């Protein structure tokens, strides 16, 4: 490994030993809140694709399919900042006028289905996903809206972060309303009413910690029950119109919110709700207008994350174009920079890790035979998606760009695409689940397990150094991508994934004794992380438990795989594990993530998980008295 590693520090702090020298000199770019690891890979891919797309716009690179042709047109449109200046706030006006025209709940109710398809703000959210109990078909889900602040806990009266953030948000919104043509007094009135309404919503939606518990997501309600949750809006007509049918059940992920909806949507609150909608629309759409509006619209998110500056025009155009055509860009990236050979190689590696996992389950000492067999069956049925999808989702063939010459603006095209996407989503209701759909594009540096589908997905972008490289030893690769692959497999058996069977249905397949034992072990993981000091705060062990279980299972499984190779080098294995979590973040970003992120801080992911593995102590001769030492009784072992 070319990195400068301080071997004398390993017994004190593995993460610092591997990354300390890098941390001393690493600087966070002004438009970032983090640098290192995942971020560096994303930046490298961005640089590559921006260069390619510059050639695409210049005509040097020809679109390989119709979807890339539309992407090119959209990229041209979003890159024309002179046109955006000339258009000013005019593209936003029709949407604000629609909200301003509302004089009663009835006015909203009369156009509710169209309002939702358009993508305008509503005081509830509807979406489509696999039915958690009958995973072969898509179901309709209903939840509360997103709050202005990052989490409901920010509305607690003693929350210090909110005291800093709320004034920043209000000041930004005053600026954006002014730029949208409102006078100061009117803007102030809207902001006050909107924030008051948001505070009324907050007690009834879930916190990040509550939302991290999937067992509480499934709350089936009848259409009548959802419709009766408010006297003011005809939800029945809107829902049946959206899905072109009559759902027998709707899954309310936040039932307490719908229980409270009638008290929120009162005649007295109408003006507040209307202001809340205006606030959401101006906040969400101003970034697609002039340069002044684009810059101003980032003030709040930058205060939250600690980014010093907004993205450049070129990068913001790239973000927008690739964000809308994400799977089209992913297809281009996957085929050009990953290819079928690598796809097969990594698929084989995933299968290998699944087999190691099966072996570990077969030899598991705390699971009973019946539960063990069901767990192995779940792995037998596990779907594996690697690199990029075989074909571009048909949705993107419907995206037709209206160029500036025909009166198209960035916002009008975006809203057209939003409507097409929403129509496509609602049309899936009650249809068979499509297991081949990807929820992440191939150029995304990440991976995921979806419990509703029992699939693991590894986009092409993560499949490069330091996670994976032919230049690295097998042990380094297992400490990198091997641990990531096994992490995603472990999600099938974390505190959330374990609730779902081999078909992705919410169905208890555990014996009572095994279930109790598992929950005791999961509680050990909660305790191991809970209250750990980090960045002036404490880690929430409950919020992060599923990811910590997956890290622990992933690392122990990858370790076993590494030990099965002829060139095994556990030193390299552990050092690369610490390297993949290399990160430097702004203090604001660290504070935010401790409040809402289901992952533990990167440094703790690197350091704490190795302390649960006996091989770590023998590899580096770590003894009682060394800071990295953990007594065997306190080492948390689950999978």
Shape: globular
Main sheet specs: 4 strands, mixed
**First-last Cα distance:** 29 Å
Might you state the CATH topology name of the largest domain?
Collagenase (Catalytic Domain)
What is the CATH C-level name of the largest domain?
Alpha Beta
Protein name: Endopeptidase
Family: Belongs to the peptidase M13 family.
GO molecular function: metal ion binding; metalloendopeptidase activity
Domain Peptidase M13 N-terminal: 11-389
Would you write up a description of this structure?
Belongs to the peptidase M13 family. Residues 11-389 form the Peptidase M13 N-terminal domain. GO terms for molecular function: metal ion binding; metalloendopeptidase activity. Its cofactor is Zn(2+). Keywords: Hydrolase, Metal-binding, Metalloprotease, Protease, Zinc. This protein is mainly α and 639 residues long. It has two domains: 8-49 and 325-393 and 437-634, 3-Layer(aba) Sandwich (Collagenase (Catalytic Domain)), CATH 3.40.390; 90-288, Neutral endopeptidase, domain 2 (Orthogonal Bundle). Helices cover 53% and strands 6% of the residues. It contains 28 helices and eleven strands. The protein has helices spanning 14-25, 37-58, 66-79, 81-87, 93-100, 105-109, 112-118, 160-179, 184-201, 208-211, 223-227, 235-243, 255-264, 270-285, 291-296, 299-305, 313-324, 326-337, 339-362, 369-380, 410-427, 474-490, 512-529, 545-563, 570-580, 587-596, 602-610, 614-619; strands at residues 34-35, 125-130, 138-143, 220-221, 250-252, 383-387, 448-450, 455-459, 533-534, 537-538, 584-585. It has a four-stranded mixed sheet. Helix 3 packs antiparallel against helix 17, helix 8 (160-179) runs antiparallel to helix 16 and helix 22 (474-490) crosses helix 25. The protein is globular and about 70 Å long. The model has no long low-confidence stretch (mean pLDDT 97).
């Amino acid at each position: 490994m070319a990195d400068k590693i301080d071997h004398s520090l390993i017994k004190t702090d593995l993460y610092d030993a591997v990354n300390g020298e890098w941390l001393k000199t690493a600087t966070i770019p002004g438009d970032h809140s983090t640098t290192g690891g995942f971020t560096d890979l994303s930046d490298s891919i961005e640089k590559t694709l921006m260069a390619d797309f510059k050639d695409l716009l210049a005509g040097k690179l020809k679109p390989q399919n119709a979807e890339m042709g539309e992407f090119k047109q959209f990229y041209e449109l979003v890159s024309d900042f002179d046109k955006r200046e000339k258009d000013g706030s005019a593209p936003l006006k029709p949407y604000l006028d629609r909200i301003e025209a509302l004089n009663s709940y009835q006015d909203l109710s009369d156009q509710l289905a169209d309002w939702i398809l358009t993508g305008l703000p509503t005081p509830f959210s509807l979406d489509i996903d696999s039915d958690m109990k009958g995973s072969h078909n898509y179901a309709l889900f209903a939840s509360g809206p997103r709050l202005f602040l990052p989490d409901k806990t920010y509305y607690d009266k003693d929350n210090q972060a909110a005291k800093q953030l709320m004034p920043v948000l209000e000041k930004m919104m005053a600026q954006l309303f002014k730029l949208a043509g409102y006078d100061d007094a009117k803007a102030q009135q809207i902001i006050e009413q909107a924030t008051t309404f948001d505070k009324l919503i907050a007690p009834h939606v879930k916190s990040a910690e509550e939302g991290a518990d999937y067992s509480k997501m499934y709350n089936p309600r009848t259409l009548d029950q959802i419709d009766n949750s408010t006297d003011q809006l005809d939800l029945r007509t809107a829902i049946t119109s959206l899905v072109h049918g009559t759902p027998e059940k709707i899954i309310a992920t936040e039932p307490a919110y719908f229980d409270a909806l009638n008290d929120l949507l009162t005649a007295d609150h109408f003006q507040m709700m209307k202001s809340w909608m205006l606030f959401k629309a101006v906040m969400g759409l101003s970034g697609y207008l002039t340069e002044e509006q684009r810059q101003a619209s980032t003030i709040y998110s930058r205060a939250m994350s600690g980014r010093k500056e907004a993205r450049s025009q070129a990068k913001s155009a790239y973000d927008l174009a690739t964000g809308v055509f994400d799977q089209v860009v992913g297809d281009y990236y996957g085929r050009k920079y990953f290819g079928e050979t690598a796809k097969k190689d990594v698929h084989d590696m995933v299968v290998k890790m699944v087999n190691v996992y099966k072996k570990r389950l077969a030899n598991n000492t705390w699971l009973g035979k019946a539960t063990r067999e069901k767990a192995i069956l779940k792995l037998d049925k596990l779907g594996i998606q690697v690199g990029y999808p075989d074909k571009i989702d048909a949705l993107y063939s419907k995206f037709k760009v209206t160029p500036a010459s025909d009166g198209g603006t960035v916002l009008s095209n975006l809203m057209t695409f939003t409507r097409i996407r929403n129509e496509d989503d609602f049309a899936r209701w009650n249809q068979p689940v499509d297991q081949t759909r990807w929820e992440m594009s191939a150029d995304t540096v990440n991976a995921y397990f979806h419990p509703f589908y029992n699939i693991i997905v590894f986009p092409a972008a993560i499949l490069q150094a330091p996670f994976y490289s032919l230049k690295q030893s097998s042990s380094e690769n297992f400490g990198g991508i091997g641990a990531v692959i096994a992490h995603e497999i472990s999600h099938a058996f974390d505190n959330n994934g374990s609730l779902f069977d081999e078909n992705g249905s919410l169905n208890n397949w555990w014996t009572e004794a095994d279930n109790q034992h598992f929950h005791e072990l999961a509680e050990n993981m909660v305790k191991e992380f809970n209250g750990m000091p980090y960045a002036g705060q404490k880690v929430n062990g409950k919020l992060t438990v599923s990811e910590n279980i997956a890290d622990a299972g992933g690392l122990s499984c990858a370790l076993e795989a590494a030990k099965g190779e002829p060139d095994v080098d556990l030193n390299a294995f552990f050092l690369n594990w610490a390297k993949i979590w290399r990160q430097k973040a702004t203090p604001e970003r660290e504070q935010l993530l401790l409040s809402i992120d289901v992952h533990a801080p990167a440094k703790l992911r690197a350091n704490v998980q190795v302390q649960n593995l006996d091989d770590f102590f023998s590899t580096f001769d770590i003894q009682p008295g060394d800071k990295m030492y953990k007594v065997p009784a306190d080492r948390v072992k689950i999978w």
